[in-house]
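Work Package 4 report. The design task specified in the project plan requires that, given a folded chain encoded as structure tokens, an amino acid be chosen for each position. We show below one input record used in the internal validation round.
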């Protein structure tokens, strides 16, 4: 095809083959390079998502800290009966940042309710119990419920 009748190679055809093979190798290397860049970008964004500090976590931490300080200051013998009496006779309700997060004590279920917004149409209600062991007050996570509507 590219050989002349004498069996010699025409000038320039080897250069075309070399350019074609070189471009093919370059395309393969560039495709691997772009795949590695995409993988690196995904890993970095996943790492950023993992270490991201959400506002909801800050609200939860602040409200439970305020509740803990309030109980420690007002309940002198830190026993289960004294804490029950204090919680049943006082209204425990904390709000933060325009009701974006709230913490309430439910008298019926004897549990704490932490509520925060997921989006404009739904909020998340986390239920916590409390336990006193060796004079230490601990809040124990129970479950999460997603509710449509606004925080009341």
């Amino acid at each position: 095809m590219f050989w002349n009748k004498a069996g010699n190679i025409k000038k320039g055809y080897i250069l075309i083959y070399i350019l074609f093979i070189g471009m093919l190798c370059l395309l393969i290397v560039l495709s691997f390079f772009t795949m590695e860049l995409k993988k690196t970008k995904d890993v970095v964004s996943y790492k950023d998502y993992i270490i991201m500090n959400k506002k909801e976590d800050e609200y939860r931490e602040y409200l439970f800290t305020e509740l803990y300080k309030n109980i420690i200051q007002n309940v002198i013998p830190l026993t289960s009966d004294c804490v029950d009496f204090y919680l049943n006779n006082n209204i425990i309700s904390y709000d933060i940042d325009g009701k974006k997060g709230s913490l309430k004590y439910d008298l019926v279920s004897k549990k704490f309710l932490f509520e925060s917004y997921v989006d404009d149409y739904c909020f998340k209600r986390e239920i916590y119990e409390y336990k006193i062991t060796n004079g230490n007050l601990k809040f124990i996570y129970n479950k999460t419920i997603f509710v449509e509507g606004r925080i009341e």
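The chain has a mean pLDDT of 86. Validation will be extended to a larger panel in the next phase.
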